[in-house]
Design brief:
The protein contains five helices and three strands, in the order ααβααββα. The chain is an alpha+beta fold. It has a three-stranded antiparallel β-sheet. The mean pLDDT is about 90.
Length: about 110
C-alpha cells in the first residue's frame, strides 16, 4: 500500500508557501485551504510544524493579530527569501513532475 503522507511530506513546504503567497493567512485557514484544494486528509498537526520550520528558515514572518472569534492568531507572510524559495520549488516540482509523468506513461529514456 502506498503511503501518500510520506510522498506529501516532501511537497508540503512548497504547497504551504504557495497558499501563503496568495495572501497572509493563519494555520487553521492554511489547513482548510489545502483541504479544499485537494488534500482532504491533511490536518493542523501536519501543517503547524512545517510553518515553524519555514519561519526558522527565514522563509516566513509572522504577526499576532486579534481574532474576531477568540484568542489572537498568528498570521504568516512570505519573506523575500520565501518568495525566492517558492519560485525555485515550483521550477523543481515541474521538472520532477513532468519526468515522473513521462516515466509512468511509458515515455522513452533518451
Amino acid at each position: 500500500m502506498i503511503d501518500k503522507a510520506q510522498i506529501l511530506k516532501g511537497l508540503l513546504e512548497g504547497c504551504i508557501l504557495e497558499v501563503i503567497s496568495r495572501g497572509e493567512s493563519y494555520g487553521y485557514q492554511i489547513t482548510e485551504d489545502l483541504n479544499n484544494m485537494g488534500l482532504p486528509d491533511l490536518n493542523e498537526g501536519s501543517v503547524y510544524p512545517v510553518l515553524i520550520r519555514l519561519q526558522k528558515k527565514g522563509l516566513l514572518r509572522s504577526e499576532s493579530k486579534k481574532s474576531p472569534l477568540g484568542p489572537k492568531r498568528k498570521y504568516f507572510n512570505l519573506t523575500d527569501s520565501g518568495h525566492d524559495y517558492l519560485k525555485d520549488f515550483k521550477e523543481a516540482w515541474f521538472d520532477i513532475s513532468n519526468s515522473v509523468t513521462s516515466i509512468m506513461e511509458g515515455g522513452s529514456h533518451e
